[in-house]
Amino acid sequence: MSIEQLARKNVRELTPYQSARRLGGKGDVWLNANEYPVAPEFQLTAQTFNRYPECQPALVIERYAAYAGVNQDQVLVSRGADEGIELLIRAFCEPGKDAILFCPPTYGMYAVSAETFGVERRTVAAKADWQLDLPAIAASLDNVKLIYACSPNNPTGNLLDPNDLRALLEMAAGKAIVAVDEAYIEFCPQASVAGWLSDYPNLVILRTLSKAFALAGLRCGFTLANAQVIALLLKVIAPYPLSTPVADIAAQALSAEGLSQMRQRVAEISANRSWLQQALQDCACVEQVFTSESNYLLVRCNAASNVFKTLWDQGIILRDQHKQPGLAGCVRITIGTREECQRVVDALKPLLGTKEPM
Known about the structure:
By secondary structure, the protein is α/β, with parallel strands linked by helices. It is 35% helix and 16% strand. It has a seven-stranded mixed beta sheet, sandwiched between helices. It has a four-stranded antiparallel beta sheet with strand order 9-10-13-12. The chain is globular and about 55 Å long.
């Protein structure tokens, strides 16, 4: 029996998540992974590298709970929000029996994580406005233990209707966990559902330091949930999920100064997003720029594959979204520095000519 044959069948047939780094490229303007464009500076203060770290670093938990406005026993820290996605499947879904449900177009790791664990992936397409199709979800809940809802949604950038989220939580009560992925919530903090935890025992919220905190390379995420859920997740998490340097830098990022710097980044990126959204309207190859509450814009283009390759050849790396349901002709553009945004516009304007000024 070959090594390939020794592997589980679902793993042999699995298409891995195509992360920005796996897709590669040799650009100098990286606008394909929703990262912050400039590296923050931190100095390590911890020196106890000869000892195993705490499973749940106390200072990180304390500071994130204060930041998120929840109790400390409602916070779990992990290796990015991606690990939080997996922990929920491990804790709540029986392989070969239970299912997860999500609503494409949305983040691809929900599907990949479920497939990895041998758990059924069930999809209910979002409506034309990318809101939840609640009747279709209600008709698809048999054996569903876990529902993922991303808000702001990646890659569309829209917020989900809070009334729909409440209806979903009530619909799933006693049947399934509803995980609201808030990876981009710092760009619209008023839309967070963290204040709902006391109302819904089945609510889980996924967070990260990868976006507005500019720490994608740190791999540090958070799961917010009621204490009973957190206790279950602590049973299946690795013994030492965060290295000592990660915990050290995360605690610094969550200090008063770190939070102030994060909010300055959000203001900067939001301003650049508004500028880019307006500038793209003057590019003839652009059919539509969708409203976004995140650090990226979804853009529908004429001959999108040519747009993507033309910018790629100029060292400007975007994220092609045409394979996502309902996103034909779409690319996603991470908001970079103003200079990077200008390069995008300069590269797009010659394509198919330039729109006449009004």
